[in-house]
Amino acid sequence: MTVIPIKTHRELLDSREPGQGMPGDLFGRQDVFETDMDVFFHKRWILVAVTADVPEPGDVYAIDIGKASVLIVRDDDENIRAFRNVCRHRGSRLVKNAGKVSVGMLVCPYHQWTYDLDGSLRHATHMGKEFDKDCKSLIPVHVKVVGAHVFVCLADEAPEDIAKLEAAMTPRFAPHEMQRTKIAYEMDIVENGNWKLVMENNRECYHCGGTHPELTQSFLAHDFGFCPDGQSEESLADYEQYLANNAARKEEWEKDGYICELVESLDESVETNFRSQRLVIAGAGESQTMDTKVASTKLLGNLQRRDLGDVHMWGHHSWTHVMSDHAVIAYAIPLAPDKTRVRTIWLVNEDAVEGVDYDLKKLTEVWIATTTQDAELVGNTHSGTQDPGYVPGPYSKYTEDALEQFARWYDARIKASGV
């Protein structure tokens, strides 16, 4: 009987041909999943919450990331802090279930050790006079707030290049005053696929025309990519007009102080992978809705213009769309090689009133439909990659170049970790 040796993680990476998809074992194996969790979710900056998850002092949002659990806390001075969800006594979870709670202090349910919202230990009975409670504060986690996004890093030393993301995105988000928002709706879905397939699906719109009829109401057809080979003169002229119209709109926005310049940090050398641009919205040009008009008449911040396009940002496990009237923020947290939690959040002006300023169905229907459709696409693709007959195929250089960039970055980060 011939025994086929199992390839190592590095050998799997090296077996990928440039310009082609990843081997199926990179999506399905438990050892690869565990390495991914360590490298991409415990040592990189990751998006775990929005500021509206903890709007008031004493609000706590707990999130599980593999074996780790993190508390996002709004303290008494209204600062956002992050701590390990581990009591300094014998390790009990302080908050037992993921999600939101409101507390005066953080009290361990086991022996009632009690912590202030700044993480300091306030009470620990029966520990004796030699016990120094100042040495038993909660373990802090690196935290960075950019716009409404709450990023954390679980590593002892966090990658410093988050500063590039912060410098790029702070002025882009500033007109929208994203910390003056509230959650109008949120959706949690578990997709039956590997987190890398979730992100590959998000980073290309090659599939959009045939699978996302709701989303494509607000997307320009050429945003999906364009291959000039074999196109008619009319099609080529139409594409040139698309480029000219985009350039004119962005020049107008820039004159009014709205940043449009593409910024990206995607190559193999970076730690913090992100990209942002301001996209032109089709139709009425206002928002990602079925009629492409705003879903909320109370715009974000003090904006007066409705036609400000879509400030789009992606990270290595998240994506964001910010329009004049609302924002959609989503992130993926791996649960298993074939299970990924995707949380999607819809933000509106903190003063907007449902049924008065916005219609919830109009606000959410595009991305509820799109997320549900994507879950099916990811599950179907994951299943196919685990078939013994699967052979990785080529990426389209016109519509899937971002997938090749992601694959190269993934390869480089894994190998830099020493795997």
From TrEMBL:
Q: Which CDD domains match?
A: RHO_alpha_C_GbcA-like (cd08884), Rieske_RO_Alpha_N (cd03469)
Classification via PROSITE patterns: RIESKE
Q: Which cofactor does it need?
A: Fe cation
Looking at the record, the residues that make up the Rieske domain are 47-152
Which InterPro entries does the entry mention?
Answer: Rieske_2Fe-2S (IPR017941), Rieske_2Fe-2S_sf (IPR036922), Ring_hydroxy_dOase_asu_C_dom (IPR015879), Rng_hydr_dOase-A (IPR001663)
| Swiss-Prot/TrEMBL keywords | 2Fe-2S, Dioxygenase, Iron, Iron-sulfur, Metal-binding, Oxidoreductase
Give a single Pfam family match. Ring_hydroxyl_A
A GO MF annotation of the entry reads: iron ion binding
As for family, the record states: Belongs to the bacterial ring-hydroxylating dioxygenase alpha subunit family.
State the name under which the record lists this protein.
Answer: Aromatic ring-hydroxylating dioxygenase subunit alpha
Query: Whose protein is this, by species?
Result: Trinickia symbiotica
The lineage is:
Bacteria, Pseudomonadati, Pseudomonadota, Betaproteobacteria, Burkholderiales
